[in-house]
Amino acid sequence: MIASARMYEWVPSLTIAWTRLLTWVAARAGVPLELESEPTASVPLEAVWLRDDLGCVLMCGYPWAMRRDRPHLLAAPVPSPPRYAGRPVYVTDFVAREDGPHRTLEDTFGGTIAYSQEHSHSG
Questions:
Q1: Is 117 within 8 Å of 7 (Cβ atoms)?
Q2: Which whole-number Å values give the CA distances from 101 to 6, 38, 96, in the listed order?
Q3: Is there a contact between 63 and 46 (Cβ–Cβ < 8 Å)?
């Protein structure tokens, strides 16, 4: 089975952090997991999410929900900041420059937005 957090590995320091965490999870669970480390360009992320050997994979809820043969959901991360109230809440944040003109969501209408993954509701 594989372990992967590739959706959240934007820079090498994050890859190192996720590798440490997933290695710890595998050891703690007593389950051997192969860390999926394919370069982003060689295997599309959505292809990783379609694999049959998902052991510990952090993935967006949208592609999981769209699968006919959904893997069994064993756990969902619970972020520690207070706004999540101890729940596995799914959110998207819009981030704008502090010195820019955008103060409300409506201020962004007609503008341009960037996102990280085409197959993700969170971005």
A1: yes
A2: 33, 40, 9
A3: yes
pTM over 0.85: no
Q: For the chain (length 123 residues), average pLDDT per consecutive 10?
A: 85 90 94 79 78 85 80 83 90 86 93 76 61
d(CA 18, CA 23): 8
What six digits make up the tokens of 106? 């409506």
Which tokens go with 28? 């703690």
- With beta carbons less than 8 A apart as the criterion, state whether 3 and 25 touch: yes
For tokens 């699968």, name the residue: 67
- Side chain identity, residue 79: P
Q: Residue 43 carries which DSSP code?
A: S
54-57: strand order across its sheet: 34-35, 2-4, 54-57
Residue appearing with tokens 């993954």: 117
- Kindly state the tokens that stand for 49: 């999410």
Question: What six digits make up the tokens of 33?
Answer: 């997991």
